[in-house]
Amino acid sequence: MSLTDNPSADADSAYRELLAQMRAGLAQANDPAIVGIFSGGAWVAERLATDLGLSHRLGFIDVSFYRDDYAKKGLHPDVKPTHIPFNVDGATIVLVDDVLYTGRTTRAAINVLFDYGRPQRIMLAALADRGGRELPVAADFIGVRVDLAPGQSLALAKGPDSQLSLTVEEDNV
User: Fold this and answer.
1) CA atoms of 101 and 130, how far apart (whole Å)
2) In sequence order, which residues have a C-beta less than 8 Å from that of residue 11 and are 6 or more positions away?
3) Residue 30's CB: how many other CB atoms inside 10 A?
4) Residue 42's pLDDT band (boundaries 50, 70, 90)?
5) Residue 13: is the preceding peptide bond cis (ω within 30°)?
6) Which 8-state DSSP code applies to residue 31?
7) Residue 136 has what pLDDT?
8) I need a labelling partner for 120 at 20 to 30 A (CA). Which of 88, 99, 109, 167 fits?
């Protein structure tokens, strides 16, 4: 998939694929809930929760204080409060992230979840998987796999009409 030709259409196509996989994958799940990882994952999670009829089982987490590179990077200037308004114990939680890369955000998100209880199962959904894992993390649901050249990154943006777009960006090193 080329994200440079039409990023909005590509993001929409990836979203539809992700939604279809989750519908099938959560059909028999025990007490399903969706938790979006701020910020891009939260946007995707909101749409998924609405489309899956799980708006009442939607939460959000910020992993800023749980990252293993916190001491090196410092506090992100846009820390948001974690909000999980349902009981995590025994639930099937789908963590939602926009772009899966090293796996470090996922590891931090799992640590946050365990502060709220002990889920029966944690699954991972990513709008885009760009490879490059540093930790043994794999998504259960993936909208699109993207191969990037060294020095490139993938960013999710949300337009004023809530339209999502994926954009390949050159890293400024």
Assistant:
1) 6
2) 127, 156, 163, 164, 165, 166
3) 11
4) very high
5) no
6) S
7) 96
8) 99
Q: Are 152 and 169 in contact (CB under 8 A)?
A: yes
Q: Mean per-residue pLDDT for 163-173?
A: 81
28 versus 3: the higher-pLDDT residue is: 28
For residue 1, pLDDT beyond 70: no
Cα separation, 8 vs 31, in Å, equals: 32
Question: What digits encode the pLDDT tens for the residues 52-78?
Answer: 999 999 999 999 878 665 545 555 557
Q: In the chain, what is the straight-line distance between the N-terminal and C-terminal CA atoms, in Å?
A: 26
d(CA 46, CA 56): 11
Determine whether 41 is exposed, middle or buried from the number of CB atoms within 10 Å of its CB (0-12, 13-18, 19+): buried
Q: Are 143 and 128 in contact (CB under 8 A)?
A: yes
166 class by beta-carbon count within 10 Å (0-12 exposed, 13-18 middle, 19+ buried): buried
CATH 1.10.3720.10 for domain 11-23+31-68+80-170: no
Pair of tokens at residue 81: 């409060």
